[in-house]
Design a protein that fits this description.
Length: 325
């Protein structure tokens, strides 16, 4: 019997690729850039399974081009690159990788909170530029994290993991979410507040909501105006949740103090984006889940999802469970 055909859209940790090679005919895109759209539409023509990343748009156009497709497995917890309704209409289950990247992403969010507080981006650039001439009592004064208020927007797994870190650092933690979170009642030191209260009281705001039509540009001119002038905004979720043009103005005009971003809109950020001209903005290239162990686990988990779909079994981690009726 012939093996099912799968397309892996980028080189991922070997463990995931090896699992698929045992049971499938694998087409692996080896270049370190997304497959150009036209070529992607050609490559999906006869595949049974698609192993995708957040750089691939899986929409009606792609699904129409892939008449044999039986399963999509996204190597990410987020799936805003996938038209879920379009897959469900065609009976195609979608896999994703929840849970395994929680702590790693929370580590990066906390690293960005600390980097924003202590102006690490600027001070590192200062040293490399040869400007460090003496110890100075007024050099790069930042903010204390200890005793400060952290506002967490979105209390899913990653938001909660950031809250744990913040409490250990002696921070006061406010949080806002549209969903109830009964599990949080066991964590003392947290306070649920309205979005406006969080914006007004937080010294640091960390964003952990998924990108949806409701959260798109959830942070824009009005929200920045409600924040403290010293506020540090950290985004490790998705770029379009923040109105980037409004963020630039808020940072430039001192309406807020600092932004530390793991995600931008678009990705990669355009090199002429004015945010890149600001000293009070630190940007890293979407590396929230980028530890060896976590990316390896994400790769194998995505392979497990894909293989289950190809065998006609339920995906262990399925986004659109209603596909099973
Ligand atoms: C995700 O999983 O959604 C991240 O953004 C990439 O790890």
């Amino acid at each position: 019997m012939s093996k099912p055909k799968v397309l892996i859209t980028r080189v991922v940790p070997q463990e995931g690729i090896a699992m698929l090679r045992e049971e499938c005919e694998v087409d692996l895109w080896e270049e370190d850039r997304p497959i150009p759209r036209d070529l992607l539409l050609e490559k999906v023509r006869d595949i049974d399974g698609l192993y995708s990343l957040l750089t691939e748009r899986v929409d009606d156009e792609l699904l129409d081009a892939a008449p044999n497709l039986r399963v999509v497995s996204n190597m990410a917890v987020g799936y805003d690159n996938i038209d879920v309704a379009a897959c469900t209409r065609r009976g195609i289950p979608i896999g994703h990788t929840p849970g395994v990247l929680t702590e790693t992403t929370a580590d990066l969010a906390f690293a960005l909170i600390l980097a924003g507080a202590r102006r690490l981006g600027e001070s590192e650039r200062f040293v490399r530029a040869g400007k460090w001439t003496t110890w100075s009592p007024m050099l790069f004064l930042g903010q204390d994290v200890y005793g400060a208020t952290l506002g967490i927007v979105g209390m899913g797994r990653i938001g909660v993991a950031v809250a744990r870190r913040a409490l250990a650092f002696g921070m006061r933690v406010l949080h806002f979410d549209t969903l109830p979170h009964p599990e949080l009642e066991v964590m003392s030191g947290l306070r649920a507040v309205s979005f406006d209260t969080l914006l007004a009281q937080a010294d640091f705001v960390s964003i952990h909501v998924p990108l949806t039509e409701t959260t798109r540009k959830m942070f824009s001119t009005e929200q920045f105006k409600r924040m403290k002038r010293t506020a540090v905004v950290v985004n490790t979720a998705r770029g379009p949740i923040v109105d980037q043009a409004a963020l630039y103005i808020a940072l430039r005009d001192g309406e807020i103090g600092y932004a530390a971003l793991d995600v931008t809109d678009p990705e990669p950020i355009h090199m002429d984006d004015p945010l890149l001209t600001l000293d009070n903005c630190l940007i890293v290239p979407h590396i929230g889940s980028a530890s060896v162990a976590t990316r390896t686990r994400m790769a194998t988990m995505a392979a497990e999802n894909l293989l289950a779909g190809l065998r006609g079994e339920r995906l262990p981690h399925c986004v659109n469970r209603n596909v099973y009726g």
